[in-house]
């Protein structure tokens, strides 16, 4: 993470180059419930700070400064944030399923409904994957009716 021009490493589990939204999604959407307004404010704050700090040097950016600024364009960044939410939450749901069914670690059961809900919100926002959205909505509805 970057704070006032200084680099801080807070988690190295998935340490690899990726989209700027990856860590942000991890902090704001994985297994926690924040209000939509809180998330929007924090996403915009991150985007503004990234623009001011010119993080392309930290991202090993190969393109031009103009191309980098385009990646932090508000609409494009918001779309990338939602896509990353979908990817990370579906990956997490797969992990929870594995932990429950194969390793009998039932503690992960408590995270499924919240992750489905957050994934559904992002799927509704993006409007690109109606089949996945229908499956997630159906599974969430089934879980909530139990």
How would you summarize this macromolecular structure in one to three sentences?
The chain is mainly alpha-helical and 146 residues long. It has six helices and two strands; from the N terminus they run ββαααααα. The protein has a two-stranded antiparallel ribbon with strand order 1-2.
Please tell me about this protein's structure:
This protein is an all-alpha fold. The protein has one domain (19-145). The protein is built from 6 helices and 2 strands, in the order ββαααααα. It has helices at 21-29, 36-53, 65-71, 74-101, 112-126, 130-145, and strands at residues 2-3, 6-7. A two-stranded antiparallel ribbon has the order 1-2. Helix 1 (21-29) packs across helix 4, helix 4 (74-101) runs antiparallel to helix 5 and helix 5 (112-126) runs antiparallel to helix 6. The model has no long low-confidence stretch (mean pLDDT 87).
The SS-based structural class is mainly alpha
Spatial order of the strands in the main sheet?
1-2
* Total separate domains: 1
General form: globular
* Helix run count: 6
Number of beta strands: 2
Major β-sheet annotation = 2 strands, antiparallel
Which percent range describes the beta-strand content?
Answer: under 5%
| Average predicted local confidence, pLDDT | 87
Task: Return residue spans where pLDDT drops below 50 for at least 5 consecutive residues.
Answer: none
Radius of gyration: 17 Å
The first-to-last residue Cα distance is: 40 Å
Relative helix content: 55-70%
Q: Spell out the helices and strands N to C.
A: EEHHHHHH
Notable traits:
146 residues; 6 helices; 2 strands
